[in-house]
Write a structure and sequence with these properties.
5% strand; single chain; two-stranded parallel sheet; mainly alpha
Length: 146
């Protein structure tokens, strides 16, 4: 499961569809509708928020908006629109890690999208999150050195 802190605009088609599915799974986990993935590290930050369900609905809403911009047909009935919810902190190190990870994936599977974003200096974050100082989050599995 990968719940990106990055804005979904950076994702290729495969990544955006995967994110939608994984966020829907995360919603079911947070609602207690599944036994699997209950302790998945990607969900820690949602669980630590004051309103985990509202947060995941807002997270899904932003993904849906990006999909709609690309004329993809994601089902809007899968989330409850949220105008306002608590924001969740994410470290600058985590955002940098995710961007490097995504660029590595895009270089292999969508060279056009890779070229369009490879020179980004400060990546935009998903609007659910806000940036804080710090290294890679404690729950992340660091596969890269930078």
């Amino acid at each position: 499961m990968r719940i990106w802190s990055l804005h979904p605009k950076y994702l290729d088609a495969k990544g955006l569809v995967a994110l939608w599915r994984e966020a829907l799974l995360a919603k079911n986990v947070l609602k207690g509708n599944t036994k699997g993935y209950r302790n998945h590290p990607q969900l820690i930050r949602f669980k630590e928020s004051h309103h985990p369900i509202k947060c995941i609905h807002y997270y899904l809403q932003v993904i849906w908006e990006e999909a709609r911009e690309r004329n993809y047909l994601f089902n809007p009935e899968k989330f409850i629109p949220e105008n306002k919810t608590d924001k969740i902190p994410v470290t600058k190190g985590q955002l940098q890690y995710e961007f490097l990870s995504l660029m590595s994936k895009l270089k292999n599977r969508d060279i056009q999208r890779y070229k369009a974003h490879k020179d980004v200096i400060k990546a935009d974050i998903h609007p659910l999150f806000y940036l804080t100082e710090g290294e890679i989050e404690h729950w992340e599995k660091n596969l890269y050195e930078f």
